[in-house]
Amino acid sequence: MLKPRNREMKSARSLFSIMFGVILVVMLFALPGQAQVRIGLKVDHRIVMEGEPTVATIVIQNDSDAPLVFNEIYHNAELEVSIRRDRGSREPTYEKLDRDFVIMPDDRTTELVELTSFGDIRDPGSYQIWAQVRHDGRIFASRPQGFDVVHGIEMDSRERQLRGYRNSRLTYSLRYCARDGAEYAFLVVRDVVRGVSYGTFQLGNLVRIGKPAMNFDDKGRLVVAHQSGRNRWTRSVIAVHRDGAAFEEQTHHLPDGSPILSATPRAPEK
């Protein structure tokens, strides 16, 4: 037979267990309703060449009862991208995105963000990036995604003075890196005197059997030839002007130099 004090303790424990169970059920059912905004972010590649144009895809889902308005003049929500160098060793930096769109309740939108303009990711290193929406006094953030900016391995290089600039020295660096199960060739163009980047151009798949060639044509354009397949070579033409660099054309050839016919010469897909 239980003593009165033991009965009280057992009753208290039973009441506590019931209350805890009720609170847990309420929390589990309440949490999904609290997520008024869901947001996700994905970077094109986990490995990025230094200076390579990089795009992040942001998806925003509005689960609230009111429209989300993103506008410079009037808005009830703000979209930001946060970047942290070295995966947690430094404080993140925030870039507010000036966008003009509305997401109705129970609807979603997809936004593309070009990341190369963010100065914090131009240097080689490891990074974390995430997107967040500020709305109704709260911050709704995506999961961080890590990626690496690499210098690449140089295969060959050339130097040339930019026409009209005596104090310039352009370096054309042909590099490669491995990602997504393949190796890719890149051309990185910089003015090492003025510290200006003229761009990083992806030249396509690379097969490191034949030695690449780099030469300037009579127009001052750089012509790069590299092996891009078992029986295929790729010829790329890049021109540098005062206002920047341009990927002017790209063609593919058999080992004997005869062209592989295509509809039109084009630049490689990013």
Keyword list:
single chain, 270 residues, mainly beta, Immunoglobulin-like, 2 domains, six-stranded mixed sheet, four-stranded antiparallel sheet, 1 helix, 19 strands
CATH domain fold name of the largest domain: Immunoglobulin-like
Tally of separate helices = 1
**CA-atom Rg in angstroms:** 28 Å
What's the architecture of the largest domain, going by CATH?
Sandwich
CATH superfamily of the largest domain: Immunoglobulins
Which stretches are poorly predicted, pLDDT < 50 over at least 5 residues?
1-10, 15-33
Number of domains: 2
Question: Into which percent range does the helicity of residues fall?
Answer: 10-25%
Classified by CATH, the class of the largest domain is Mainly Beta
Q: Which whole number gives the mean pLDDT?
A: 83
Structural class: mainly beta
| Number of distinct beta strands | 19
**Shape field:** elongated
Subunit organisation of the chains: single chain
Biggest sheet overview: 6 strands, mixed
Query: Separation of termini?
Result: 80 Å
Percentage of β-strand residues: over 45%
Structure description:
With 270 residues, this protein is mostly beta strands. It has 2 domains: 37-149, Immunoglobulin-like; 153-253, no CATH class. Helix content is 11%, strand content 51%. It contains 1 helix and 19 strands. The strands form 5 sheets. Strands 2, 5, 6, 9, 10 and 11 form a 6-stranded mixed beta sheet that branches. The chain has a 4-stranded antiparallel beta sheet with strand order 12-13-14-15, with no helix packed on it. A 4-stranded antiparallel beta sheet has the order 16-17-18-19, with no helix packed on it. A hairpin with a 2-residue loop joins strand 18 and strand 19 (244-253). The longest helix has 31 residues, at 4-34. The N and C termini lie far apart (80 Å). The model is unreliable at 1-10 and 15-33 (pLDDT under 50).
